[in-house]
Amino acid sequence: MGVKKHRPITPSLRFTVTLDSKGLTKKRPERHLTEPIRKTGGRNSYGRVTARFRGGGHKRRYRRIDFRRDKDNVAAVVEAIEYDPNRTANIALLGYADGEKRYIVAAQGLAVGDSVLSGEEVEAKLGNCMPLKSIPLGLTVHNIELRPGRGAKMVRSAGLGAELMSREGKYAHLKLPSGEVRRVHIECRAVIGHVGNAERESCSLGKAGRKRWLGRRPHNRGVAMNPVDHPMGGGEGKSSGGRHPCSPWGQLAKGYKTRKPSKSTKHIVKSRTAKR
């Protein structure tokens, strides 16, 4: 897939850059692999806004993605490469030899008609899923599990890939796209290759309306508000707030640590913020 620039016959099209859909299969998604999405408008179960500037947007259906890839040693053929409105990457529809169908995140270079496999002793080729202990060192992987059997949690966005650097004991060292080097258990599974649709970063929305189609409402700055509405509001002229950046409820926006040290920090070998 490539990018497509439009003739500037309108002001918005002058700056619009979209993806060319030549490589995608033009068909409706498998109905039994989808489920409805109920819009929340950024509100939680108590009706309180927890994510500001959310609302509207086009109606979608969620595509259930197989992040576990636990159907071992059963051949599957890529039947379609489809667009997924819920993620940056495209998805691939797999048809297994026993008749079952599943969606997976499409790897870069995966095409209709290709064959993929999952298991411990399968060939290390594009789209195959296998434990880290079976993957040759130096390969690029994506859709990586953090705990064996829990499903992929890392490196799932368009164009991303992590490098398998080494193995020490029961842990493998992975260099993530952020530059962080992390230890992951060798029984955790990963998929060979980069995530597809890397050209997405070259796209430009072109107009504010396309942002509204995605469910994003206009974001107004705190310094442009009144003091009653935001801690950074008020002041004569264009004031910069007079305090550290924060939310309307006073929570710091920069430098405030949100990661729990007890969870997974101990597995970080090299931080993404470490000096290179």
Can you give a write-up of this model?
With 276 residues, this protein is mainly beta. It folds into two domains: 3-201, OB fold (Dihydrolipoamide Acetyltransferase, E2P) (Beta Barrel); 226-266, Ribosomal protein L2, domain 3, CATH 4.10.950.10. It has one helix and 17 strands. The two termini are 34 Å apart.
Give the secondary structure arrangement, pairings included.
Layout: E1 3-5, E2 17-19, E3 34-36, E4 61-63, E5 76-82, E6 91-96, E7 101-105, E8 115-116, E9 129-131, E10 140-142, E11 144-145, E12 152-154, E13 162-168, E14 171-175, E15 181-185, E16 189-192, H1 208-213, E17 268-270
Brief summary:
The chain has 276 residues and is mainly β.
Descriptive terms for the model:
276 residues; mainly beta; OB fold (Dihydrolipoamide Acetyltransferase, E2P); Ribosomal protein L2, domain 3; 2 domains; seven-stranded antiparallel sheet; four-stranded antiparallel sheet; 1 helix; 17 strands; globular
Q: Can you tell me the CATH architecture of the largest domain? A: Beta Barrel
Which ranges are low-confidence, i.e. pLDDT below 50, for 5 or more consecutive residues?
none
Gross morphology is globular
Q: What multimeric state do the chains show?
A: single chain
Measured on Cα atoms, how large is the radius of gyration? 22 Å
What string gives the helices and strands in order? EEEEEEEEEEEEEEEEHE
| Percent of residues in beta strands | 15-25%
CATH fold category name of the largest domain: OB fold (Dihydrolipoamide Acetyltransferase, E2P)
Helical proportion, percent range: under 10%
Main sheet, how many strands, which sense, barrel? 7 strands, antiparallel
The CATH homology group name of the largest domain: Nucleic acid-binding proteins
What number of domains?
2
Which CATH top level class of the largest domain fits? Mainly Beta
Compute the separation of the termini in Å.
Answer: 34 Å
Strand numbers in spatial order across the main sheet: 9-16-10-13-14-15-17
